[in-house]
Amino acid sequence: MEQMVATITNVLILSSMYILVALGFAFLFNMLGILNLAHGAIYMVGGYIGLALIGELGFNPWTALLLTTLIVASFGVFLEKFCFRPFVGDFNRIIMMCVVITMVLQTAVNIIAGTQILSLPPFMAGVLRTEHFSVSYERIVTFAIGGILLAIILWFVNRTRWGQQMQAISQDMEAAALQGINVHLISALACFIGCGLAAIAGCLIGAYLCIGPFMGDFMLLKVLMLVFLAGIGSISGIIIAGLILGGLDSILPLLISGAASDAVTVAIVVVILLFRPQGFFGHEA
Amino acid sequence: MTNNQLSPSTISQSKIGRRKWAKPAVYAGLVVIMALIPVFLSSPYILHILILTYIYMIAAVSLRTITISGQFPLAHAAFMGIGAYLAGMASKWLNWQPWFTIPMAAFVTAGIGVLVGYPFARLRALYYAMGSLFFGIGVIYIIYAGGVWTGCYAGLTAIPPLLPLVTSKVPYYYFFLGLALGSIIALYRFEFSRIGTNLKAIAQSHLVASSVGINEGWYRILAVGVGCFFVGLAGAGYAHYNQVLSPVSFNFMATLWLVMYVLIGGIGHFAGPIIGTFILIVIPEFFRDLKMYSPFISAAILGIVVYLIPEGLVGLSKMVRSRFTERRKDTWAVNAS
């Protein structure tokens, strides 16, 4: 029972964090065709800014979470304006730009904070105990924030005017511009939301597990897997693919020890992509 | 009037005549300069950096060989890792001679490349890039899971050196200079052969290419095989030179760096990856004193190229030339009016 509850919470937490980061990546990728390889670094910086605000400046964790989100999201708008917008459509230069951003962010964090593994203070201490099992409040909070944010994002994309405009741009940018949609404003908004989500995930993972300068590389690989498993252009597919990937990542280590479980996960993803290159819900071949 | 019409063609003809021997002469001069470096600079550190440059040059040029078929593989460092670990494990655990393990590793890497390339030949563009990326990650996880055989996270140590009796780096320098030269010439011949032309045709339009009888899948697998052969060679040489292998040197970021070497030099020219590798490995070494800040130098080089030289460093000479000729034309126009 204890083990089962722990596994289920693990699956839910990992999945929701993967999905949060992947949604931000997918917004940019669907709308502008930007393969944002710097997204992992942005997620990592989110964790470190959260740590700096709580540890060095003494903010309350919840205020720090909000402030971090705003700071990183504004950084995202800056990135969109100066690093992505001039090169939209030029795939090679976008990739080079993303490597530059990743290097600058990782080196800066290395210099300021050092390479050691750090951890954020928990957002909520204590353990929920019942007759059969016990779950720490930290896990519940992490999952609750992830779930609420997901619901808000789904509502935003499907029900609001801006979300509809984002979908229109991802279908056809020029046609959307002809309809009077401010393409630049909406892509800046998408970058704002995407980087903000990555920062929240960075803070939550930092409190739940730990943070290090290179944690972004791992998350970037997971995000790429998730987005391509789901299929390009599919938002709801990301949630299902995220649940599958989170499940694989938390259940396989129980069955196979060590790095072999990661190898099996990757092998499953490669085989799925070979048989269905467009992913579960993609439309293009 | 006739004089005016004739003169441009005569100028261009004489230019072609001059360039016929000028280009090989420049390349031969560069090779001679590189061959003479150990005579003047015997510092082991400089030689070490140059040896690494040659190894990564082979890897970057062989990556270009695959990219001329229009696909962008993101598993190239993983293939280098396959070659390096094969050579290292064969000579460490089976006591095979380095002179045998290096070609063996290259051929086996090429075989693995062909085997993997066969199912991947159905993927194109971004899907191919992502599929190969995940394959590369899988290779790294397999190395991590290899236990004692691959050395896990600590890496494979105490690999027998290529030249056991030599302590200086000069023989190694000439060995890798020769290896790089041979590989680059072979890949140059490959790219400008009929096969290379077919690959470029596939890159332009795979539908048109297959309609004129080019077997797209076969040629793409061939390109992957050739690219993997040379990257396996580079990896095996690296294993016997460095004597220590760590999976980190072959992960996703390493692949991205190989891609950077190709892109920064310019993707449209054969010399691109050669120049790119040289610039991105040698120039940051001048700023070694900055220690932790030195990645900023690489980032600055990349940033300058991204913002100012869209065609890559190879395009720089063309940009400069066109700027001067444009200005000359303008002044000529002003004078004429």
Walk me through what this model shows.
- The complex is a heterodimer of chains A (285) and B (337).
- Chain A is mainly α and 285 residues long.
- Chain A has one domain (2-215).
- Chain A contains eleven helices and two strands.
- Chain A has helices at 2-32, 39-56, 61-84, 91-113, 137-159, 161-171, 173-178, 183-208, 215-230, 236-255, 259-275, and strands at residues 127-129, 134-136.
- Chain A has a two-stranded antiparallel sheet with strand order 1-2.
- In chain A, helix 2 (39-56) packs across helix 9, helix 5 packs antiparallel against helix 8 (183-208) and helix 9 packs across helix 10.
- Chain A is globular.
- Chain B is mostly helical and 337 residues long.
- Chain B has one domain.
- In chain B, 76% of the residues lie in helices and 0% in strands.
- Chain B contains 13 helices and no strands.
- In chain B, helix 2 packs antiparallel against helix 9, helix 2 (44-67) packs across helix 10 (252-265) and helix 3 packs parallel to helix 5.
- The longest helix of chain B has 39 residues, at 2-40.
- The chains are: A mainly alpha (285), B mainly alpha (337).
- Chain A binds chain B through residues 35, 37, 86-87, 90, 92-93, 95-97, 99-100, 103-104, 106-107, 110-111, 217, 221, 224-225, 228, 232, 258-260, 262-263, 266-267, 269-270, 273-274, 277-278, and chain B through 119-120, 122-123, 126-127, 130-131, 133-135, 137-138, 141-142, 144-145, 152, 251-253, 256, 259-260, 263-264, 267, 292-293, 295-296, 298-299, 302-303, 305-307, 310.
